[in-house]
Amino acid sequence: MSHIVKLGITFKDLNVLKKAVVQLGAEYRSEYTYTGYYSDQKLKCEALIRVPGCKWDVGIVKDGNEYALEADAFVQGTSGGKEFLKNIRKEYAAQQIITTAKKQGHSFKRTTTAKGETRIEVQCY
User: Fold this and answer.
1) Measured over all CA atoms, what is the biggest interatomic distance in the chain, rounded to whole angstroms?
2) For burial by CB atoms within 10 Å, which of 19, 51, 53, 110 has the most?
3) What is the pLDDT of residue 1?
4) Residue 66 · residue 9 · CB < 8 Å
5) pTM of the predicted model, to two decimals?
6) CA trace torsion 89, 23, 99, 125 (10° rounding)
7) The domain containing residue 73 runs over which residues?
8) Domain-embedded: residue 76
9) Can you give the pLDDT at residue 5?
């Protein structure tokens, strides 16, 4: 029996995703299988994410022209998994802005507001 579910999150750029994963304190690994609830259950992926506080991997799988996250359904119920899934889209967007600014030779300043919101100011010359 499988507990594997698509997490409804897709990304276009693996390099930007890797930066977002690391920024959130998780580990990005270039491995080609990830483990579900059953330890003998090895599932194919492009890379995997190890989230602190979560004993199951999150797989990054190719989905057409994008990459999707999938994992054992239990990941969503762990404290580490919930927090990671809540923040990965926001952090990916922030990393996209930073990556684009750097490529275009602009400087930027990243701050966090009192409400916990990320603010990125890009300075164009």
Assistant:
1) 57
2) 51
3) 43
4) no
5) 0.86
6) 110
7) 4-91
8) yes
9) 78
Identify the helix (H) or strand (E) that includes residue 121. strand 118-123
State mean pLDDT over 45-58: 90
| Cα–Cα distance list, 48 to 34, 56, 117 (Å) | 6, 10, 27
Query: What is the tally of structural domains in the chain?
Result: 1
Residue 2 confidence (pLDDT) = 61
Is 28 a domain residue? yes
- Helix axes 14-23 and 79-103, enclosed angle (nearest 10): 120
Backbone phi and psi for residue 12, each to the nearest 5 degrees, phi listed first: -100, -30
Question: What is the per-residue pLDDT across 100-122, written as a single tens digit (0 to 9) for each?
Answer: 999 999 999 999 999 988 999 99
String of b and e for 21-52 (b: at least 16 CB within 10 Å)?
A: bebbebebbeeeebbbbeeebebebbbbbbbe
Angle at 99 between CA 7 and CA 111, to 5 degrees: 85
